[in-house]
Design goal:
The complex is a heterodimer of chains A (about 180) and B (about 140).
Chain A: H1 9-25, H2 34-42, H3 60-79, H4 90-99, H5 119-138, H6 143-152, H7 156-180
Chain B: H1 2-19, H2 25-32, H3 38-59, H4 80-96, H5 100-109, H6 114-131
The chains are: A mainly alpha (about 180), B mainly alpha (about 140).
């Protein structure tokens, strides 16, 4: 296994568990979407809406953690990933070419990149983000909070949330994306 | 001093998700088409090991850095908010190929377009906080 290849699943998965454990050990919890609420409160949303009126300063650690993920992303993408192409299964490649989306060796498809910015791209980016922010707060958690932390603690609500993630995800992938492209 | 630990754990998390390509739209698309084991292997192995870790924490009352037993909150009972909110999130996850963590990691990696996704996510969170009382939970 070369250092520069894709990190295999059996290494990445346990590493994520380690992150969950380290945060628990540090007296916190593993949940990324809470940082969105913390940010809203820090920007002053609590003055007007009670949902954001809480002691957000106690959650500053979450924003520090986020800053760390950004630096980690920068380091890994620029120094540890000389091969940016994502090697996908043959079936996925065929489905992509049917949609007219190219696997462009840039990690993300063209329609998500700034250089191809159009009204459609802006709507997709803002709209996708909106669904993520609205949905995760409604469900009280995202992939880290429910799929990893919640399922690890054998929580039924988290299993229901993960089923929800897949209902939405399958609907988008199989029915809505072909309409959008 | 503690903040340096959060920062370093975040750094490690960002590197792992980038190296494992979890932050790539293509991987999420492939996952929702059930055409690769990669993402299922990552989430599955993280959860399997996570179950063992959580059981050990509870069985041996493992202490946190503050010298108190690690306490893991139970999720509130119910199903509506989880199923409905989860489905909303799933739509967004499959559209832009990122859950909240990867949004930040992609911005850090230099994908400026994801600043728009982050703005959308903050607006979505804000909107939820405003209309919360009218939604089923």
């Amino acid at each position: 296994m070369s250092f520069y290849n894709t990190l295999p699943w059996y290494v990445a998965g346990p590493c994520i568990t380690l992150v969950m454990f380290l945060l628990l050990y540090l007296g916190k919890r593993f949940g990324l979407s809470s940082s969105l609420k913390t940010t809203c409160s820090a920007l002053g949303a609590g003055k007007k809406w009670s949902f954001f009126d809480y002691d957000w300063k106690a959650d500053i650690w979450n924003l520090v953690f986020i800053a760390g993920t950004m630096v980690g992303g920068f380091i890994a993408y620029h120094f540890f990933m000389p091969e940016k192409a994502i090697v996908l299964s043959q079936n996925t490649n065929e489905a992509l070419s049917q949609l007219g989306i190219s696997n462009n060796e840039k990690y993300l498809p063209d329609f998500l990149l700034l250089k191809n910015i159009s009204i459609k791209t802006i709507i997709i980016l803002l709209g996708g983000g909106f669904l993520i922010g609205f949905g995760t707060r409604w469900a009280n958690g995202c992939t880290s909070g429910h799929a990893i932390s919640g399922l690890s603690n054998l929580q039924l609500p988290s299993l229901i949330a993960v089923i929800g993630f897949f209902i939405g995800g399958l609907l988008m992938t199989h029915f809505l994306l072909p309409l959008i492209f | 001093m503690r903040y340096i630990s959060y920062f370093l754990v975040g750094c490690f998390f960002g590197i792992v998700l980038t190296k494992a390509e979890v932050i790539s739209w293509y991987r999420i698309y492939e996952m929702f088409r059930f055409e690769s084991f990669h993402m299922y292997g990552i989430i599955g192995s993280a959860v399997c090991l996570g179950v063992v870790v959580v059981q050990l924490i509870k069985k041996f009352s493992i202490l946190s850095v503050e010298n108190v037993p690690i306490h893991i909150e139970e999720k509130e009972k119910g199903w509506k908010r989880y199923l409905l909110g989860g489905s909303f999130f799933g739509l967004g996850w499959a559209l832009v190929g990122a859950c909240p963590g990867p949004i930040y990691i992609l911005i850090g990696a230099g994908f400026g377009s994801f600043i728009l996704v982050l703005i959308g996510a903050l607006l979505g969170t804000l909107c939820y906080g405003i209309v919360k009382g009218k939604l089923p939970h």
